[in-house]
Amino acid sequence: MFSFFKKKPQEPAPQANAPVTPAPTLGQEAPVAVATPAEIVAAVTPIEQKQSWVARLKVGLSKTSSNLTTLFVGAKIGDELYEELESALLMSDAGVDATQFLLDELKRKVKNEKLTEAAQVKSALRSLLLDMLTPLQKPLVLEQHQPLVIMITGVNGAGKTTTIGKLAKHLQTHGQSVLLAAGDTFRAAAREQLTVWGQRNNVTVIAQESGDPAAVAFDAVHSAQARGTNVVMVDTAGRLPTQLHLMEELKKIKRVTAKGMASAPHEILLVIDGNTGQNALTQVKVFDDALGLTGLVVTKLDGTAKGGVLAAIARARPIPVYFIGVGEQIEDLQPFNAQEFVEALLG
Ligand SMILES: Nc1nc2c(ncn2[C@@H]2O[C@H](COP(=O)(O)OP(=O)(O)OP(=O)(O)O)[C@@H](O)[C@H]2O)c(=O)[nH]1
Question: Which UniProt key words apply to this protein (predicted)?
Fold first, then answer.
């Protein structure tokens, strides 16, 4: 079992003569909820589901895994092994910097620990990768703000809307009320998709016939404040990092959201298609420079994804990977767990 979300730790009870916190008003941030116990909520994933989920991750990453593991079979430690490893890491989308870093560290480890067997080198690589990816493993913390406002961004087709749907379900399972802002005003079908999904799942969706996604986000924040909703997720239209005017639009959504609630958006997530390869790193850099990302969601790791891009991200922009997706079912979105990921890659 692993944590899905983390809840804000309980704060000490106020003194009897402590000043009373004024009631929140529209446009003003409500006081932080204090009644939550300090706990990490266990995922409600039954063991069979969990196994099938990990199995799907392994299948998804099997090409990289087989490239990385077979080169150690019957190998001698030396230049040839390191060259093969370099190629396998580059082919896994780890990129030049992370590949070089891993190779240098590995050679140092082999020397310092006087390793003599290829199997020992493989386990040294496993532990290096784990050290590299563990800093990316962070849970999304709930109940720090009322409402918690999450903005979801990404290129077209990365899996934003699907992720929002899955996350909304998971949040509801963890006792959170959810409101969605249909900020993809560019594509009418996207708005309808979210609205229909919301109706089916009893989640309020704030949408506007036409117009400004920033206004939709602003309305959603106010509406959530008025209703006492726990989490607002703002969907945004897919865009390429090279579409500068659309990147400006995202900045505007962020700015206008902050007018509705000074501290919002509290989380700005970038959804990345795991099959995008090294281009994913470019996306992370450009969206982060524009918006200040707080987390990533890497989808479609069940397909032909190679997985190494997480190492590239860990080296270049270590932004937490809150969730990874390995399919279209709700349980296919799970928190990123570095240990599981490294096991899927290196067996
Ligand atoms: N195999 C697989 N498919 C996924 C995953 N996540 C999303 N998808 C599929 O990817 C496609 C695109 O997903 P959307 O959620 O519509 O992507 P989007 O980013 O909202 O797309 P735009 O609104 O066009 O920008 C859909 O067919 C999803 O079912 C995943 O983890 N695995």
Answer: Cell membrane, Cytoplasm, GTP-binding, Hydrolase, Membrane, Nucleotide-binding, Receptor
Query: pLDDT-based confidence at 17, cuts 50/70/90?
Result: very low
User: What is the dotted CATH code of the domain comprising 55-135?
Assistant: 1.20.120.140
Identify the pLDDT of residue 99.
97
Residues with CB under 6 A from ligand 1: 154, 156-162, 184, 190, 238, 299-300, 302-303, 325-328, 332
Cβ–Cβ < 8 Å for 198, 180: yes
Q: What is the pLDDT of residues 333-347, one digit of tens each?
A: 999 999 999 999 988
> Where in the chain are the domains?
55-135, 141-337
Q: Tell me how far the alpha carbon of residue 275 lies from the centroid of ligand 1, in angstroms.
A: 12
- Tell me, in angstroms, the distance from the centre of ligand 1 to residue 185's CA: 18
Task: Give the predicted TM-score (pTM) of the model.
Answer: 0.88
Q: Which CATH class is domain 141-337?
A: alpha beta
pLDDT tens for each residue of 260-271 = 999 999 999 999
Q: How far apart are CA 330 and CA 43, in angstroms?
A: 13
Which residues make up each annotated binding site for GTP? 154-161, 235-239, 299-302
Q: Which residue has the tokens 């230049």?
A: 79
Q: Within 10 A of 61 (CB to CB), how many other CB atoms are there?
A: 26
Index of the ligand 1 atom closest to the CA of residue 303: 1
pLDDT digits (tens, 9 = 90+) for 77-89: 999 999 999 999 9
Rounded to 10 degrees, the C-alpha dihedral 104/106/108/112 comes to: 180
